[in-house]
Amino acid sequence: MPSLVAFNRQWNIGSDDFVFPEITEALVRISWVAFGVSVFVFHFPLACSTHNLTLQFLGLLVINVITIFLAILTAVISARGTIMDSEPRRLVPRLLYIRLPIFIAEIALTILATVHAFRSTNGGEGCDFATIARVTIILEWFLIVTAVVGLFIVFHLTENDVEDGATIAQRSWSRRMRIFKIGQDTSMRAALDDLATLISSFFVDSDLVPSDVVAGLLLAYHSPNNQYPPVKEKENASRPKWMNLKDAEYFLHHASCVYGWPTYILYNCGLKSIFRLFRKLQCCGRMRCAQ
């Protein structure tokens, strides 16, 4: 499954990874809406003097209802198709485009409601709407913070195409493993870096997301046909003396210096590509090719 491309950037998830997250978000927001409606039923706010807070609270209810509908629609569309057939899920990026301005409006309205809720009084004798609204707004902030943290986890910028695919894959998987390094010691961090390098070496030329790799590992682990023959060492075949790692590194160094940038310019003709190439250059005295 290729990575989801939206907002001209590449995401750490695929278009089929929105089913359970969107269902979970819809259930949480339904609980919030139910709590908000109960506030209106048992603490009728129109009898209070906090009219601005009442309008803002109603606006948050409407936004949450719209978000619930979009979340359920996203989950339904994300569940279509198969792993390789992503055409039935082509509307997922468009739904993300629709949800972005709604999410920004939700944040702005929540800020206004927070200011009015914590500045205003209860609004009169026997009116506890402002006090209950503070609890509801705190829960709304919990929803917003959770959504923002989720975006930071799955979103990453497109890598620089000047570097080779192995370097890009290793950096990408190292960043994906970063969340597991929280609270770990030095040895565990080094082990996670080695694991990221190992995974990137397997999937260097594949556009896969972490959920695809985890699903593949689980299927391979639970497969009844996961019995593999023992690995046998190959016999050392006779080869010339010049065929060694030291000479290979020597010739690779000069080949990359001679054919590296001309080949890049040949296949990446444009001002943007040339600018990216110049950012990689150093002074002539420090260039490896001049040594």
Which features would summarize this protein structure in a list?
2% strand; 291 residues; mainly alpha
Radius of gyration: 27 Å
Reading the helices and strands in chain order gives EEHHHHEHHHHH
Shape: elongated
The total of helices stands at 9
Termini, distance in Å?
44 Å
Average pLDDT, rounded to a whole number, is: 75
The secondary-structure class comes to mainly alpha
Approximately how much beta-strand content do the residues carry?
Answer: under 5%
What is the topology, as strand order, of the major beta sheet? Answer: 1-2-3
Largest sheet: 3 strands, antiparallel
Specify the oligomeric state: single chain
Give the number of DSSP strands.
3
Uncertain stretches of 5 or more adjacent residues: 158-162, 285-291
What percentage of residues falls in helices of 4 or more residues?
55-70%
Structure, explained:
The structure is a single chain. The protein has 291 residues and is mainly alpha-helical. Among the domains are: 3-160; 245-282, no CATH class. It is built from 9 helices and 3 strands. It has helices at residues 19-42, 51-78, 92-119, 129-154, 165-176, 186-202, 210-222, 245-267, 271-280, and strands at 5-6, 9-11, 155-156. Strands 1-2-3 form a 3-stranded antiparallel sheet. α1 packs antiparallel against α2, α1 (19-42) packs antiparallel against α4 (129-154) and α3 runs antiparallel to α4. The longest helix has 28 residues, at 51-78. The two termini are 44 Å apart.
Short characterization:
This protein is mainly α and 291 residues long. The chain contains 9 helices and 3 strands; from the N terminus they run ββααααβααααα. It is elongated.
